[in-house]
Design a protein that fits this description.
With 483 residues, the chain is an alpha/beta fold. The chain contains 15 helices and 17 strands. The chain has a five-stranded parallel β-sheet, with helices on both faces. A five-stranded parallel β-sheet has the order 9-8-10-11-12, sandwiched between helices. The relative contact order is 0.07.
């Protein structure tokens, strides 16, 4: 007996045998994926004894005829395609997919994952180009070739992906199961707080961080697009789905990493740049749209040489810890909802605390510690991506988050010439704004190492905070900024 009535199998797993080849059982990727996915689905269903999953672990046995196998595919409630270069080039798994699609409306019953990038999406069967394939591979920064996610090497990302996929499949299965005599959903949708957020498809090196942001915003009660977590791949399909969601969204979030974005014959500029430029165009047409573009605080943009590297240097891209970025997005949404007549003024006033951090590449470590501490103290910490964009980013910060409460110039391992240039840059910023618009606190964070000369510059109304051995002096200063 199946969980979903009227089917022979609840879940049919379709894969290419090459993707499960290994001498040792524990190294067979597809087998391990399916075993852990079954556990996850059963956990969400709460009906372990009823779930029936069809999966041939090594190869199709000789006594199982192809017509029988295809009949199993047609009579399955859910179909999972484990996509790879082998999958899209083998007749057998594609025959299974075709048989399943002959069973009627499959729009809510077909799932796909990629254990390895399958290459040109134009070569995909049409049905696979129309759905969002969840990536189950990773691009290591020290390797030129992607590899399948490993439960041993990437345990956190592996568990997160398995958990999300199991939850989505279980939720879909519940909708097809009669509840009190009726067919339909079970009300498992997040309640929107009038904040619709488009979370852009990211590069392969930031998929875990993107998943983290999605969970954070969803748990906060906001509607996050795309609904399936990823858009259909392939140029025209992707463009249409993305632009439709962008028209609906009032907040746009994009994470940019060091990896080169995927290309497609119909999207030669790449997915990252298309989304980035589309959001900029939408902002010009709809000034009420708020955009948030982020890069990792540890990333040296000068080391990114491919054609997507200039996106990282754009003045709208902020560098901060991921925790600070998530808090900043939520703060901006709450402020926007308040000014739209939603939310409470006391809560907004209590959270509207922003620190602008200026640091050289050599001081990313101490700057990251400063940013983390600001976040722990309830401040939103924003870092500039390059010294040339200081003024533009300061304007962007004011537009998105309001006036800064503090400006921190971090001086640790940076050379004296860099610090002098930053002083000149801040003088230009100061000339653009009135005294009331400038940060309440302007400070130089004198960080490690201990054995070095004092900072070579002083800023107007600034103070020097000695943090060469501890951040405690900065914590005390932050406490003084609280209303």
């Amino acid at each position: 007996m199946t969980y979903v009535p009227g089917y022979q199998w609840d879940v049919f797993v379709s894969f290419a045998n090459n993707d499960n080849d290994a001498a040792r059982m524990e190294d067979r990727w597809v087998s391990r994926f399916v075993e852990e996915l079954k556990i996850g689905i059963r956990t969400w269903l709460g009906a372990a004894d009823k779930l029936k999953v069809f999966f041939e672990k090594d190869s199709i046995p000789a006594n199982l005829k192809l017509p029988t196998l295809l009949d199993y595919a047609r009579n399955s409630a859910i179909f999972i395609a484990i996509v790879s270069p082998s999958y899209v080039r083998r007749d057998w798994p594609l025959d299974e997919l075709t048989a399943f699609c002959e069973s009627g409306d499959t729009s809510d019953r077909l799932f796909a994952i990629e254990c390895l990038p399958a290459g040109d999406y134009a070569l995909f069967p049409g049905i696979l180009r129309d759905i969002a394939a969840m990536p189950f591979f990773i691009q290591d920064k020290d390797s030129r070739a992607p590899r399948p996610l490993s439960p041993d090497q990437d345990p956190r990302m592996w568990k997160n992906r398995i958990g999300e996929l199991a939850h989505d499949i279980a939720t879909r299965m519940k909708k097809f199961r009669p509840v009190d005599g009726n067919l339909g959903g079970n009300g498992d949708h997040p309640v929107s707080l009038n904040g619709i957020i488009l979370l852009a498809q990211t590069t392969d090196d930031l998929t875990e961080q993107c998943d983290d942001v999605r969970r954070y915003l969803t748990q906060a009660g906001y509607s996050v697009l795309p609904r399936q977590g990823i858009y259909p791949q392939g140029g025209e399909e992707f463009k249409a789905a993305f632009k439709a969601d962008l028209d609906r969204a009032n907040f746009y979030v994009q994470l940019l990493g060091s990896a080169k974005s995927r290309r497609d014959p119909e999207l030669p500029e790449g997915y990252a740049r298309f989304q980035f430029e589309s959001a900029k165009a939408a902002l010009r047409a709809r000034p009420q749209l708020k955009t948030f573009c982020w890069r990792p605080i540890y990333l040296d943009v000068d080391e990114v040489k491919h054609e997507d590297g200039n996106l990282l240097r754009d003045e709208t891209v902020v560098a901060m810890t991921l925790e600070s970025f998530k808090s900043a997005i939520q703060l901006s949404i709450e402020k926007s909802l308040f000014f739209s007549g939603n939310g409470g003024i006391d809560a907004i006033a209590a959270k509207s605390l922003t620190v602008y951090i200026n640091a050289a590449p050599d001081d990313r470590e101490i700057a990251g510690a400063v940013s983390d501490e600001c976040a722990r103290q309830g401040f939103t910490a924003v870092m500039q991506p390059s010294e040339n964009s200081a003024l533009d980013l300061f304007r962007e910060v004011k537009k998105s988050f309001g006036a800064c409460n503090a400006y921190f110039l971090v001086f640790g391992k940076a050379d004296t010439l860099w610090a002098v240039r930053q002083g000149a840059s801040f003088s230009k910023i100061s000339a653009q704004y009135s005294e009331a618009e400038l940060p309440k606190l302007i400070a130089i964070i004198d960080g490690p190492p201990e054995d070095k000369n004092p900072p070579p510059i002083r800023l107007p109304r600034s103070r020097v905070i000695n943090c060469r051995t501890s951040l405690d002096p900065m914590r005390q200063v932050l406490a003084e900024l609280r209303p």
